Amino acid sequence: MNGLRIVRLANFVTPASGGLRTALDELGRGYRAAGHEPVLIVPGATASDVDTPQGRVLTLPGPVLPGSGGYRVLTDRGRLRALLERLRPGRLEVSDRTTLRWTGEWARRARVPAVMVSHETADGVLRTWGVPRALAEGAADRLNARSAHAYARIVCTTEWAEREFVRIGVRNVVRAPLGVDLRRFRPGLRDAAVRARHLRGEDVLLLLGSRLSVEKRPGRALDALAVLRNQGVRAALVVAGDGPMRAELEARARAERLPAEFLGHVRDRDRLARLQASADLCLAPGPAETFGLSALEALACGTPVVASASSALPEVIGPAGLAAADTGPAFAAALLELLGRPERERRTAARERAGLFGWDRSVAAFLSAHEVPQGYGALEARP
After folding, report:
1. Cβ neighbours of residue 16 closer than 8 Å, sequence gap 6 or more
2. Cα–Cα distances in Å, from 55 out to 27, 79, 259?
């Protein structure tokens, strides 16, 4: 018998997207391999309908969100509702608790089990935009209470992300970690030529793999680099990522004469893996990160990570890295501490930690959140 049609909705996905785009792709491939029919609906400039390795991908026209650096959103409720009614999903999976929350009520009326995946904490994002903690938490609590009511389950990727739901007594929260491709991202890709090209005569290669937007705090990497340089550490920084802050960061690096190279979005995943394997250390300064796929990919390549202590990443990286307070000096101190560990030891620990996060385990956890048992073939698929 056929599996279930799992329709997935997501906003804020572009060709240059990072973690969310990767997660959607890997989960879709996993659902398909398990015998289900994944269908992904995302916004774009024009409508399209294509079959991909992650399943069918439908693009609906959606406007660009001002100030987001190119992110689009699904705003035509009538068109999206009609599409959902035609698709008749067996399960619904939504990766946006704001503009798409109404789909939870649609699913309830259509008797379609639906989950909302929390890819960020609402209060964390609000605080990174300067909203005071009390106001941010109050707004997040109201939003999260409505989300929990709208969906059968809320899926959080870490215990850290789960806390904002637990504090308001939400009981339909389940945890499902994301994963990493352990074959594509591996220590054996470390390349002396790649190192030399990006070091440009310096000694220590630092990597920031991040969208260059305010909530990611990419300027913290330049702060740490400046501190290290002032302490006599011959470090260079390579930045893989793009976003609305890129021009500002490049201008700052030039003004302060910091050896920072901005590559923009690295579309070639194999090239990115070689870069991650060739770096000495990776920085993950975003204080509102709920998982951190880029950091996990670096670990899989044998590269330790220094992450914001305010984020979920300390939970993910474990002993394969260090957590730092959200200041340049704190990040620089953590980087120095990691550099003080024997290279073989720190790289082995990074790879071993990443080995706990294969995508197969992630897919199984997400299917469990959908209440799809191992013997899924016994379930009746909706036409």
Report:
1. 70, 242, 265, 267
2. 10, 21, 42
Q: Tokens 């491709």 — which residue?
A: 181
Q: What are phi and psi of 175, to 5 degrees?
A: -110, 135
Give the Cα separation of 49 and 59 in Å (integer). Answer: 6
What is the dihedral sign for C-alpha 64, 65, 67, 69? negative
Fold classification of 5-179+358-378 (topology level)? Rossmann fold (3.40.50)
pTM of the model: 0.89
Write out pLDDT tens, residues 139-158: 888 988 988 998 999 999 99
Q: Boundaries of CATH 3.40.50.2000 in the chain?
A: 5-179+358-378, 187-354
- Mean pLDDT confidence for 209-217: 92
**Contact (Cβ atoms closer than 8 angstroms) between residue 303 and residue 327:** no
Q: What is the pLDDT of residue 281?
A: 98
d(CA 63, CA 99): 13
Amino acid identity at 178: L
CATH topology of domain 187-354: Rossmann fold (3.40.50)
pLDDT tens digits for 334-363? 999 999 999 999 999 999 999 999 999 999
Angle of the 293-300 helix axis to the 343-354 helix axis, nearest 10: 120
